[in-house]
Every structure is written in structure tokens, then in C-alpha cells.
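Homework help board

Subject: predicted structure for assignment chain

Our instructor gave us this sequence and asked us to write out the predicted structure in C-alpha cell form, then describe one feature. I got the C-alpha cells but I'm not sure how to describe them. Can anyone check?
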Amino acid sequence: MSRLHCPGPINRRALLQIGGLSLGALASGGVTPNLSQLLAAQDGSSQVDRDFSVILLFAAGGPSHLETFDLKPNAPAEYRGPFNPIATSVPGMQICELLPNLAKQADKFAIVRSLFHNRNEHSGGTNRMLSGYASVAANPADGEYPEMGSIIARHLEDRTRDLPLYVATNKLYGGGPAYLGPAYSPFMFSGNPNDKNFSVGNLSLSQDAAGLLQKRTQLLAKFDTLRREVDRAQTMSALDKFNGRAVDLLTSSRTREAFDLSREPDKLRDRYGRTTGGQSLLLARRLVEAGVRFVQITANFPVSKETGVVGATNWDDHSVNAHIFRAYEERLPQMDVAIPALLEDLSSRGLDKNVLFVFCGEFGRTPKIGYQDKSGRPGRDHWCRSMSVFLAGGGMPMGQVIGATNSRGEDPVERVMNSNCLLATIYQRFGIDTHRVNLDNSGRPVPILSEGEPIAELA
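My C-alpha cell output:
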């Protein structure tokens, strides 16, 4: 029997007349466009773990499991690649030789090698990986189902007023809040955390009169958009309540301090590596320590122009994009500084009990190496049939490998699991019932997950 929890019909709340709202105080305070919209939402939350947080380091484009955490040194040459596995501090666990620092901390992490899903295109794969649902469109620009961060923000929204619950470096292709509405989009900050004078400008109150007029106009346009969104969903809370939350966020010293990397000693910043990826992970640690519940960082570990046309945050290592093995020779040493530093930092602060770090992308890469580029350089294509996910902390049992793929890394053969099992594991740790439903834009109840059970080995 299905355990769907149906909250019953939702009474339509009276829609406030936008023109009657007192926007003057907000606009004259220089509120960044989209902030009130970000915070406006329907009431409701689950019984959740107040202290649990997630840092998701997302390798957009799809990292290769065969070059990171599931090497196949005995596979035929056209599959195995040039890198060798090395032993870690956990007997029997091996990872790529380009990650020697991480290998020393194997007791702090777990590797799941047997996840799969059914979408091989980038945005469709991202939507599938982070929402648990397959989109109708092959490559939707915006997710058709809410991504994990948006679900968590929805169910924890009453836990704090002066911190954003969901922070991201940028919007993912195929990600988004979908029918939950823009209120549950991530708070996205501008600027590079590795810059000397990094600051988050959209947490400041502008004093520029000309800027205030522009912001007032933009706010009104955003509220008009919000009114249409709310009307379609037939749910609404008083906008002045959420405008108040917007002001709380903008005037919060706790929020500003959480984003202030200058408060960290130079020695610690050096340990993370003076790279965008390294400093972004240090910022993520500051955010979860302050109380942010979901931080989504795009894995920014650049490769040289000689290696290929992929950007710093693009792991789409087709032959036509990059020489995949050179790309990993450049990326992984940067990761091997930043991630070990984060794991040590979380552990030394006791945060590893309540902060889960996850590294993954939307899928893995093809086990067979391709040479489509006219230069003849090697690459791997999209592969949703198997992938590896790296996890650390979260109060979960670490120092283990869960599942296995066949001798060529093509398909899981032990502990075969739908990728929804990863989402179910995280939601369970938050205390969010995945059978609970949200209403889509047509009013249809949609469970948070329709399939997938928590990974027992991580319980």
C-alpha cells in the first residue's frame, strides 16, 4: 500500500493587492531584485534536523568514474585509461593515483560505485540526478521537477529568517525549483571567492538614489511576476511577512559575516588552495557553520587552453572538447588540495557529524575511450548507466566502498541502485519524508520521490 501523505485540499488565500503594498521601505533600502521573490512562499515545513547541512560539489558535465574512484587497470586498453589506482588508508579501497592526499583520509569518506539513472543528456541528466524525476523535455533549461536544494529550502523555511537556507554559486543547467516557484531558488552570490577583495554585493543596502529608483522599478516587476506565480499555485502568504524576512536577511550581521572570507586566517586559506574551487569550499564551510542548510558549489578546477575548450567548471570531456587524461592531470591535483582541507576542517570543528559533503555530477563517462576529434585526442562521452559518488561526514559510517561495476565499468553488478537512493539517503538525514507531496502547477500532488530507498550502509 502506498504511503503517500496527502495534506488535503489547500484553501485559496486572499491575494493581496500588490499596488497596495508598502514597498517604499524595501525599495528605499536598496533591496536586491529577486530577494523578496526568493523569500516569498507558502507556509509549511516537515519535522527536520535543525543542525544537518549538505555541501554539494557538483561537477557539471559529468566526471569520469574511471579516472577518479572506480579505476579498471585490468580492462582492455581501449577502456582503462593511463592512470593507476593507489591504496588508501582503508584496506581494500583504491582511488586514482592523482589523489594521494585524499587517499590518506579514506576513513573520512565513502564511495558509492553502483548508482545509475536513465538520462544521458546534460540538463535532463541534472534534472534526473537532483530531483529524482525524468523530465519530459530532453534538455530543459530549467528543471521540470524541483532540485534537492529547493525541496530542502521548502521544508526548512521556518527554521531561520536571517540566513538563506539554500546557497549556490550559480544555477545549474537543468536545475531549479520548478513548480515550487522562485521562492525556493538558491541565493546566488556574485564574485569569485578567490579574489583578494571578494564580497557579496547583493547583501548590502545601497545608498545611491539613482540606484534606488531602478531597484524600485525592478521590484515592482518582480512582484507582478510573483503574483502570477502565486495565483497559478493557489497558495500565498502575506507578502509583507516575507518582505520583512528580506530585510532581516539584508541587515543580518550573521549573513554578512558568513560570507566574509577575510575572517579566515591566511594559513587556513592556503591549505584549501588559492583557487576558485578551494576558496569556494572554504566559503561553503563558513556558510554551513553559520546555519545554511544546503550549499551547492560548482566544481571549478580549471584546465589549460592547450588541454581543450572546456571551461573551468565544465567536466564534459568528449574528445571534441578536451584531452580527457590531460584534463584530469590538471584538475585532480587541485581537488586533492581543496577536498582534503575541507574534510580536515570539518572534522577539527566537529562539523563532520552534521555536515555531509557530496561530490558528483549528472552522470559518469563512457567506459570505452573515444577519438572523434580530428586531432585524435582521447575523450569519453555521457554515461548514465554507472557513476561514482563520493560522500564524507554527515554522521554516517565512512571508510567504505559501496557497490561495484563490472570489469569495464559499464554497469553496476553489486548493490545496484537507482540514483534516487542518494537523494533518499540525504532526505532521511534531514528528517524529510520523501512520500510527502507538493502540488505541481496543475494542482496534481507529486511525492518528493516516487522511488528510491535510503542506502542502508550509510544509515
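Reply (TA_rk): Your C-alpha cells look well-formed. For the description, you could write something like this. The chain has a mean pLDDT of 85. That's the kind of observation they're looking for.
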